[in-house]
Amino acid sequence: MSQSLPDRSHSFWIASTLDSSYPTLTQDVSVDVAIVGAGLVGITAAKLLKRAGKTVAVLEAQKVATGVSGHTTAKITSLHQLVYADLLKKLGEEKARLYGLSNQAALEQVATFVQEEQIDCDFERKDSYTFAPSAQDLDKIEAEVDAAIRLGLPASFVKETKLPFEIAGAVKFANQAQFHPRKYILNLAGTIPGDGSYVFESTRIKTVEGENPCRIIAENKCVVTARDVIIATNAPILDRGLFFAKAYAKRSYLIGAWIDPAKDPQGMYIGAGGDYRSIRTTPHEGKTLLLIGGEGHKVGEASDTEERYERLAEYARSKFGVEEVAYRWSTQDMVSFDRLPYIGKLTPINNHTYVATGFSLWGMSKSTMAAMLLSDMILGIDNPWIELYDATRPTPFVTQESIKQNLDVGIHWVGDRLKGLLDSPENVRQGEGKVVSVNGKKIAAYRDQMGTLHQVSAVCTHLGCIVAWNAAEQSWDCPCHGGRFSYEGEVLHGPPVSNLKKHQ
């Protein structure tokens, strides 16, 4: 292993941990369960299944815990901003209680692994808060407190916190937790290889065929044969379950800044409302790093990504007296239309292909819970959460949110083809990315700071939408289903599994 180079534009969790060095899949293997994706879902499921006597193979396109799990705020909590009052109204008390208890169980599963495996991952018990900055959202806070208490969750209403500013009120969940997610996942991953089980990196899976057995086919043509397969890639790489139409991809942003430990707010916080700020700290080498997140938007639909980082930095300066931003990064998650994750069989006719997606920005508890549920399903163990999170459940296509998001996809699919009709690669300036036209083809053109022009097809390899330039991260992002590519066309984030074609 080699030390990752510190980089202010990279996730702190990745920059502060060692690079993993698992082998690439270079020959066919056979196991009981294949798991596509080495994030928190995949590694936790592998750990649980191997403990139960199964052989497993985890297959990761990049490096362990460098995807969404390596870019999270890493709060392990059953308090998901404001959700319980809404779930009570829409699902009823029994299902709303199951949601809360299943996420609490996931929190305790993480705590158990930390203790049993003696994992050094800065695991700390912390109270979690959703706060109303002003009286405008106070009624929502009070309704959430009432709902959570009714459901038996560790909730209370408070008006005082350790935040360095006044709030109108907050819902507090006691005894939640936070950790360093990559330290945790890397430690669990290290327990998997051996006795017929594997972890493979730099192994992109193209598809899964059949079910008796399942054949998991890699980009390099190698095949993993397994009785069961879990697709744990955040955005599923298989389209058969139509999850790209049952959820939408949302990006959000984080900054990290060193603060005086005396200014540590001693908890995990998130504001109520759409313009929220997420706040927590983490220890590192005797210092305290303040993490502030927010500024979320649907993938591919914001051209002001630099300004979003600056707004977070200004918040840190005005509220916490921060002088300099040490880290900044972004993350992405699939938001389900009914606020519940999709966990279970890929389709009603699949009995051995499973999926977990739609964590709606609260992936630490939901990822662990998904791994617990999927391992139970594969092992034939009854689990009370199966029906609630059923991945094949009827999808609420007719909600206001689902209509808007799927209409947006159609608008992009048609309208974005008009982009760059009168533009050409010659007009792309240094440091700029543009969709242009060359001989009637849509080309994604980026000119680097050295003046070199990089040209790839602008047509997303997933379902043919036109990508958009993300200036802050120098990537091509698909506004339809959340796929992301480097400026050289390499897949950064699914659901696409193929790179953008080079244009010569």
Task: Summarize the model shown.
With 504 residues, the protein is α+β, with helices and mostly antiparallel strands. The protein has 10 helices and 24 strands. α2 packs parallel to α8, α3 crosses α5 and α4 packs across α8.
How would you characterize this protein structure?
The chain is an alpha+beta fold. It folds into 3 domains: 23-70 and 183-239 and 339-389, FAD/NAD(P)-binding domain; 75-100 and 120-176 and 246-300 and 311-318 and 325-333, D-Amino Acid Oxidase, subunit A, domain 2 (D-Amino Acid Oxidase, Chain A, domain 2, 2-Layer Sandwich), CATH 3.30.9; 415-493, Rieske [2Fe-2S] iron-sulphur domain (Rieske Iron-sulfur Protein), CATH 2.102.10.10. The protein contains 10 helices and 24 strands. It has helices at residues 12-15, 40-51, 84-91, 93-116, 138-150, 181-189, 305-320, 363-379, 386-389, 400-415, and strands at residues 29-36, 56-59, 75-76, 124-132, 155-158, 169-178, 198-200, 205-209, 214-218, 223-231, 247-259, 268-271, 277-284, 287-298, 327-336, 342-345, 353-357, 432-438, 441-447, 453-457, 468-470, 475-477, 484-486, 491-493. Strands 3, 4, 5, 6, 11, 12, 13, 14 and 15 form a 9-stranded mixed beta sheet that branches. Strand 1 (29-36), helix 2 and strand 2 form a beta-alpha-beta unit. It is globular. Mean pLDDT is 90; it is low at 1-8 and 402-418.
